[in-house]
Amino acid sequence: MGALDFLFGWAFLVPLFPALAFVLVGLGGTRMKRFEWGGWVAVALSFAAMVVGVLIGVGEMLSPGTYTDTSTVWLTVPGPVGPFPNGFSLVMGTLVDPVSALMLIVVTVVGFLVMLYSIGYMHHDHGLPRYYAELSLFLTAMIGLVLSDNLLEFFLFWELVGVCSYFLIGFYYEKPSAASAAKEAFLVTRVGDVLFLLGVFIYFATYALAGGGAGWAAAGFKFASGNGPFLGSLVTGASSPTLTVAGLMMLAGAAGKSAQFPLHVWLPDAMEGPTTVSALIHAATMVAAGVYLLAVTSLFLGFTPTDQLAIVAVGGFTTFFAATMAVVQPDIKRVIAYSTISQLGYMVLAVGAGFTMVGMFHLFTHAFFKALLFLAAGSVIHAVGTQDLFKMGGLRKHMRVTYVAFLVGALSLSGIPPFAGFFSKDDVLASVYSQLGAHPAYWPFFLLALGAVFLTGYYIFRAFFLAFHGDRPRDAALPAAHEGPWVMRVPLVVLSALAVLAGLFVFAPPFAHLLAPGFTVGGIAPALQGVALGANVPPVYGTTDLALSAVSVALAGGGVLTAWRLWGNGRVYALPEGSPAAPVRRLLLNRYYMKVGYDWIGQRAVYSVARAADFFEQFVIDGTIRGIEGTFARMSDGLRRIQTGVVSDYAAYVVTGVIGLLLLLLFLGPWIVTALGGG
Amino acid sequence: MILEEAAFVALGGVAIATALLALLVRELVHTILWVAVFFVDLAAIYFLLEAPFLGVLQLGVYAGAVTILLLFGVMVTRKRIFSREAATGIGPVPLALALLVIVLVGTAASVVPSSAQPIRPYDVTDLSSTLFVTDGGWLLLLGLTMMGALAGAIYLVREGRE
Amino acid sequence: MTAIPPVDFLALSAILLGIGLFGILTRRNFILLLISIEIAMNAAILNFVVFAAYSGTGGGIGGQAVAVVLVGLAATEVAVGLAIVLALNRVRGSINVAEATTLRQ
After folding, report:
1. Chain A: which residues have CB within 8 Å of chain B?
2. What is the residue range of B5's domain?
3. Which CA distances in Å does A593 have to A262, A265, A325, A584, A586?
């Protein structure tokens, strides 16, 4: 620990800035017309959060280590309770370590830029106080999640970002499609959340049953200090199947949040929300929370080999699976949404293969270039008022800034050097490749991920050419395109710069410390980083790695060229009649019929169970209750008749009671006297 | 001895008879007359039980004051004082209840040992010391109750209150 | 000295109580109701006096003291009862208790 510890002590302040914005704008936003309905308040406070957040990030770079503050006790359970002889307490603490510092930088920077962009993008919308308040609340929750120091606190913020996502997807709640998309997102992620909570309980129970170490007895599911999984070493009593199940539960939670197969269906529909929301929540931060969950689990709790295989399988498969659906999408935002799912798959893949920091690196770069792509797409949508790629065209001439920004984002996403996406994706592939010898079962998923590189280059440039190239819009009814105001252009420029530089940050020695642990194998980035760090990390970039980089760049370039052949220069490629690819296209457009399948499950399977439950409720439970109620009603109807109001009648009741007492005394009196021991 | 037993039988019989008559005669004023006789008769029984102070009290309070009060009440509430509302018959249920109480209380009384003890001679000093010293609290309580009752009665009959 | 057993007095008291109760249950005229209560009350007082008389030398004059208090109480009760009769008569024009059913509400 160094001289910067005092800085980490102020980490709790970071989420408080947007929380203040939430309160101010939420309560008084309608009276802040001069501040763009509170928008500038939210921007200012998110700027403050960014300043402190980046300061903490820089502090962590200069003084790497794990800093925890557990002074805020939420709940104390006095002992002895179960296996805790001294009881235990639940803490709302903060944790700053390399991973969370990285996330903190991503969340606060992208959060501020998106907030600023919103001023221009959302200017014409109604309900802006609601928008800014909810976005600020989201930022609060997301920062809180990043800084959580135990699983329970993590889960609380996790749910909070989920509900903010629900609010913001349904921002245009008058639109039925938006309302149903919000519900879908909430319910699908809920499946993962429930399993995640189950996993939290399993971890807690495991530690509790194992007696817990000194640190664990205090808070059973705390993210412990230290660098590396030590679950197995600490919890000797924990059986491998239990930990495997717990790890799978974590994977399920991450799959729900990060839209991994088979819980990916909600993310494309979540594009019903404002584009800014898509950029912040559904590209850069919240969906990355799933990967972050896997990362902290892998760092602090550890996965079993079975878990790792499952994670690799889910990530690798999703990478390719989502990319295929992006290929045929006519909607510019949905193309980017599928690419998000696909890229999240890369991160999950890397974490599963055991390279947590590699996954986090890709998360870091992805956050910037994906937010950039979304904001550029938002700029286009803002200009032409449609999301349909086949109506756009020729926008290059009117929107130079957006054009360049989208190009930078697309190149970065495709993995063309020297853009940020190249370094991180290359690193992911290299790290998985390094494990193929030890785990042959990873092979198919590695190949799928490699194939997805080609598809990525193809689909993003298909969208790029469709929107920006050609002479004029294909739909003549579109309004004349124009660039947005400065508040929209500035974030585009800043994010463009970051999309280029984020990959190069790795080479800056202070920054490299964030990625140092577990960042030693494969890929060009660690090799260069090794050079940057000096002798600490040996460069391991060999011929195989070079070949792999070449293959990946070649695949990406091939994808870009294919896109140019089919769509470049205003061309619109149509499948020939009777092409064998037509059914495939239909399958992809229908998203592999998975939504239909889920709907069938919902409508048939669940509905019939619900009907049976309804029958039981109506006739058995309600019948019983109604029967009881009817009996009492009849009894009270009879009893009511004796309430005549005539004094003599009441006297008669009293006399009857006295007679009863007398009888009781006469017959029971002797017995009572004996029972009391009297004579 | 014989004389006393004969006196008891006569007085008891008169008590029962007058009580019944008071409830069964048709005229309200006759009822009050019979009740007056009942009270006097009971006073005589107290004398028989060597409790002359109580007997005198009974005569003064009951046979005197209460009877006059009742008579007064009848006169105020009845426009024609010698009429009464149709007498209600002897309902079987109240009769049964009353008989049951008599039987049960009688049964309970039969537990009392019947070995005739001498009746305690009356001692007025004893009674007054008990009343005013030993059990003074009861008298105090009675006084308070009477005061409350007085206030309540005045409140109830105050004119102009509806 | 008397040879009358106390049970005889108690039996008389029980009978008078029964008559009083019977009156309370059947009579609808409020004044008759009051009279019935007085009869029952007298039966109770008689009980106290009997027990006082037969309590031997150990002290039992307390029974007579209670009886004195009860006589006062009964007189009070008659006074209040009559006040109620007057109020009832003024408000309802009748002192038939069967008509006074406002207790029901």
Report:
1. 652, 655-656, 658-659, 662-663, 665-666
2. 1-108
3. 12, 10, 11, 12, 10
Say which residue the tokens 């001023």 belong to: A119
Beta partners for residue A67, in sequence order: A96
- The answer to whether residues B157 and B104 belong to one domain is no
CATH number of the domain bearing residue C34: 1.10.287.3510
Q: How many CB atoms lie within 10 A of CB B162?
A: 4
Candidates B97, B104, B107; nearest CB to A652: B97
Instruction: Tell which of A649, A655, A667 to mutate to test the B interface (max B CBs under 10 Å).
Output: A655
In the three-class reduction of DSSP (H, G, I as helix; E, B as strand; rest coil), residue A78 is classed as strand
Task: Provide the CA C30 distance to its chain's centre, in angstroms.
Answer: 14
Strand locations in A65-164 (E): 67-69, 73-78, 87-91, 94-96
Tokens encoding A336: 């980017």
DSSP symbol at A10: T
Instruction: From chain B, pick out residues whose CB is under 8 angstroms from the CB of A663.
Output: 104
Instruction: Give domain status of residue C72, yes or no.
Output: yes
Do residues A537 and A516 lie in contact, with contact meaning Cβ atoms separated by under 8 Å?
A: yes
**Structure ipTM:** 0.86
Residue C1: predicted pLDDT: 47
What is the residue type of A583?
A: P
How many angstroms away from the CA of A77 is the closest CA of chain B?
Answer: 57
Q: What CATH number has the domain bearing residue B81?
A: 1.20.120.1200
Q: Say yes or no: B62 and B29 in one domain.
A: yes
Whether B32 and B71 map to the same domain: the answer is yes
Domain contains B44: yes
* Cis previous bond, A18, omega within 30: no
For chain B, what is the radius of gyration of the CA atoms? 20
- Confidence band, pLDDT 50/70/90 cuts, at residue B152: confident
Count of residues for chain B?
Answer: 162
Q: How many CA atoms lie within 13 A of A348 on its CB side?
A: 38
pLDDT attached to residue B5: 84
Q: Which residues of C touch B127 (CB under 8 A)?
A: 61, 64-65, 68
Mean pLDDT of the residues in chain A: 81
Chains in touch with B (3+ beta-carbon pairs under 8 Å) read A, C
B149 Cβ contact partners less than 8 Å away, ≥ 6 residues apart: C76, C77, C79, C80
